[in-house]
Amino acid sequence: MPLLTTRRQFLATTASAAGLVALHPFSARAQANQAHLRLMETTDLHVHVWPYDYYSDRAVDTAGLARTASIVDAIRAEATNAVLLDNGDFLQGNPMGDYIAYEKGLPQGDVHPVIAAMNALGFDASTLGNHEFNYGLEFLSKALGGADFPVVSANVVTREGATPTADATLVPPYVILDREVTDGAGVAHPIRIGVIGFVPPQIMTWDRRHLEGNVSVRDIVAAAEAYVPRIREEGADLVLALAHSGIGPAERTDGMENAAIPLARVPGIDAILTGHHHRVFPGEDYADMPGVDAQTGTIEGVPAVMAGYWGSHLGLVDLLLERDGNAWRVVSSTSEARPIYERGEDRAVVPLVEDDPEVLEATREAHEETLDYIRRPVGETAAPLHSYFALVADDPSVQIVSLAQLWYIEQMMQGTEWEGTPILSAAAPFKAGGRGGPEYYTDVPAGPVAIKNVADLYLYPNTVRAVTATGADVREWLERSAGIFNRIEPGATDATLLNPDFPSYNFDVIDGVEYRIDLSQPSRYDSEGVLQDPDARRIADLTWQGRPVTDDMQFIVATNNYRAGGGGSFPGVDGSTIVFEGPDTNRDVIVRWLVEQGTVQPRADANWSFAPLGGTTTVLFETGPAGAAYADDLQGLEIEPAGEGAEGFARFRLTL
């Protein structure tokens, strides 16, 4: 079957013949015994077909397969021969995916919208990512049933044999695409392209409830070592690895999640299409890594690419092939990840492409149904979710995030060495005024909660992490957070409470423990997290389940990837204490928790408070004027209006 078969491919070829686009040098210079083959990659689409942020309910220019698709034709036209491949994580990751899985379902004959979009684009093959398993195996099977292209994965096993090649796999471990390539003289030749796929073995932890007892997972490199020789024996000229695995440690360990570098050492692999990390390769994301050339785009000398996420880039690996007898071999390569947008001088997003109408039309009905879905309630809250007073009192908008994280990490710790270890949860108020202005606050009234409200609760697409922490670590974590407050002298009148240089997203509240903050003491850490007063201690009366927290106590703390990786310079939290890296965003976890809970009771439990100061001590702080409607709900706190603040804020007085 020739490479150029679809209407889109015909149009691309016509455009090239008409001189509308410039040929890649490999196509322009190929000799009679040479051919240029372009590999195009999407990865980590996460159901982002339309350029739309369903959480904020607005169009965007930074995502969407419909945007990526609009450059596919031109990119195909730059090459004499091309194949389009997807690297997994296409089935879950935004409200459209949740709508199809949780509400609409996939009745017989229906095609999942992301599959419909991929069919419209003419994908040649795909592999499974870890998120394909989030909705269970039955749903996955139904979704894949609508694909007009093969989906492969070599290391997800339904029945283990004596060797990986004797295993029964969930989907075919590999496929050999029989195609034709046109050489530099215009002569067509047959070529057999082997495509093999891999998924992180950690799916057995991340989706244990769906997978345990149904499948097992082989090590990525071990599976490659077993299957790649077989693909060659079956006559493949090339072997392409669709590795839904990041570019991680160079040293091979069994069951590693990010195995692209050891995978590149497996003999017989001609190119690696990577993903999972939501990063771009080649590029600075992977500079100075052993075995990785972040400029030319090779891993251990093997051509490779990683195309960002959500359709932000189209990954390109260009191979110059030379015919050796009746076989083809790679003699040269280039790699790039081509973006769909760029940042202007003012950091504003500048779109580089338009929507592809064919992809939009193939998914329009699902998009419109998803809009209805995100605007409908997915749960109920018995109390308002607002952040107007999140910096001065335990807060319902922060607590709902903490509760969802606790719920998630409790499940993830089951069956691990950490099962039974006390779990805490750290969360911070993201929308709390500051430079965002007097309207920059979470404000969801009591009653129905829609999916789009989740963006109000959690601004960033962070992913969930869990770290280990001793009692001493927890205390230091809280001391760092307490740096948001100025030192207050007992008896002071209307002192300024908050340090304006301290961002609210670094004010972590830790649920699961109880504590008080003594503002009469100096801050132990400055606003950058640097230890400035080793003798200072603001955190007092720190307890867990009524017992004083001792330095040697052991905890698991649920948090996000930014904090767990060292973001905010929190002492003891530097990436080395991570025990769980979740594949799910904090937003998705909140949505799932809301769906499961139905009605939530996110009333702040006042697990933290200010220690009383002697005499009558008052402080002033500013918040959004709309916060006045909730001031009387702050039980146990003496708060009163204190006039207008600067730039539209309202000022309040707190008596300590």
Question: Could you give a quick summary of the protein structure above?
Answer:
The chain has 16 helices and 39 strands. The chain is α/β, with parallel strands linked by helices and 656 residues long.
CATH architecture level-2 label of the largest domain: 4-Layer Sandwich
Task: Count helical runs.
Answer: 16
Helical content (DSSP H or I, runs of 4+)? 10-25%
Largest sheet composition: 8 strands, mixed
Structural class: alpha/beta
When the domains are counted, the total is 2
Form type: elongated
Name the CATH superfamily classification of the largest domain. Answer: Metallo-dependent phosphatases
Classified by CATH, the class of the largest domain is: Alpha Beta
- Regions with pLDDT < 50 over 5+ consecutive residues? 1-20
Strand content: 25-35%
Mean pLDDT: 91
Q: Quick one: how many beta strands?
A: 39
Radius of gyration (CA) equals: 27 Å
